[in-house]
Amino acid sequence: MITFENVSKVYPNGVKGLQNIDVTIEQGEFVAIIGLSGAGKSTFLRSINRLVPITEGDIRVDGKSVTKANKKELRLIRRQIGLISQSFNLVKRSTVQKNVLSGRLGYYGTWKSILGLFTKEDYERTKEALATVGLSDKLQTRSDQLSGGQQQRVSIARALVQQAPVILADEPVASLDPITTEKVMEDLKKINQEMGKTIVINLHSIPLARQYATRIIALKAGAIVFDGNAAALTDQRLEQIYGKAIFEEKAGEIDETERNSSF
Ligand SMILES: Nc1ncnc2c1ncn2[C@@H]1O[C@H](COP(=O)(O)OP(=O)(O)OP(=O)(O)O)[C@@H](O)[C@H]1O
């Protein structure tokens, strides 16, 4: 489904964002990307839809090269990939309905998009998607009247109407409280299990990665240093990924870390 073949990314300032990544993510997997700040998680995720262009190697989605795609091909590939980010990216002054409908824009040419000529099916899909994330009653609410958690669930609904088989989530719960975090993660689990969508999610929280992901990939300085399931992610492996400090922090700040469920 998603294949990285010897992928490296060197930013113009010389920083190596990714180093010789070789990995394949199969359809239906729920993959968490973990690692320290600056390890390359966002670079990894955003290179999949070429928001970040790589400098070496090739990335393929469903057999099609993202790296070599021309403008039109890239548009078609991006339609297959939903993106959920930490900042939700909603048009705040627009209704929930309009924000979710915008997930359909990739299916239309420019003029239809500008005029917002959506079909009856688009409106139906919007309703269904909002039901999936438990926000049916918010259809006509202005997005800036929603809580952060609700806004994130609207952005999930927008990715759902896009009908993309792949959903990339870049730290989608970073700004949410633990209870809302749970709801958003449960939504993602549901669409993974019931709709078979491939989820690739960047997480700072190891407990969340363990709880939800079927596979965990850890990055360090742009390279993969762990690739396995939760059971294989032992304390020893965590130390390799995060350094010794992770255990000192665990011992000294257990209340703090439990409160914001970072570790
Ligand atoms: N546009 C850019 N220009 C130069 N360097 C960059 C750019 N974006 C990221 N980097 C560098 O690339 C490396 C990887 O960054 P990236 O944002 O992918 O890490 P991350 O694991 O997602 O971090 P965080 O958890 O803080 O979001 C870092 O050293 C970062 O400073």
From TrEMBL:
<keyword id="KW-0918">Phosphonate transport</keyword>
<dbReference type="InterPro" id="IPR027417">
    <property type="entry name" value="P-loop_NTPase"/>
</dbReference>
<keyword id="KW-0813">Transport</keyword>
<keyword id="KW-0067">ATP-binding</keyword>
<dbReference type="GO" id="GO:0015416">
    <property type="term" value="F:ABC-type phosphonate transporter activity"/>
</dbReference>
<dbReference type="InterPro" id="IPR050086">
    <property type="entry name" value="MetN_ABC_transporter-like"/>
</dbReference>
<dbReference type="Pfam" id="PF00005">
    <property type="entry name" value="ABC_tran"/>
</dbReference>
<keyword id="KW-1003">Cell membrane</keyword>
<feature type="domain" description="ABC transporter">
    <location>
        <begin position="2"/>
        <end position="246"/>
    </location>
</feature>
<dbReference type="GO" id="GO:0016887">
    <property type="term" value="F:ATP hydrolysis activity"/>
</dbReference>
<keyword id="KW-0378">Hydrolase</keyword>
<dbReference type="InterPro" id="IPR003439">
    <property type="entry name" value="ABC_transporter-like_ATP-bd"/>
</dbReference>
<dbReference type="GO" id="GO:0016020">
    <property type="term" value="C:membrane"/>
</dbReference>
<keyword id="KW-1278">Translocase</keyword>
<dbReference type="InterPro" id="IPR017871">
    <property type="entry name" value="ABC_transporter-like_CS"/>
</dbReference>
<dbReference type="GO" id="GO:0005524">
    <property type="term" value="F:ATP binding"/>
</dbReference>
<protein>
    <submittedName>
        <fullName>Phosphonate ABC transporter, ATP-binding protein</fullName>
        <ecNumber>3.6.3.28</ecNumber>
    </submittedName>
</protein>
<dbReference type="InterPro" id="IPR012693">
    <property type="entry name" value="ABC_transpr_PhnC"/>
</dbReference>
<dbReference type="InterPro" id="IPR003593">
    <property type="entry name" value="AAA+_ATPase"/>
</dbReference>
<keyword id="KW-0547">Nucleotide-binding</keyword>
<keyword id="KW-0472">Membrane</keyword>
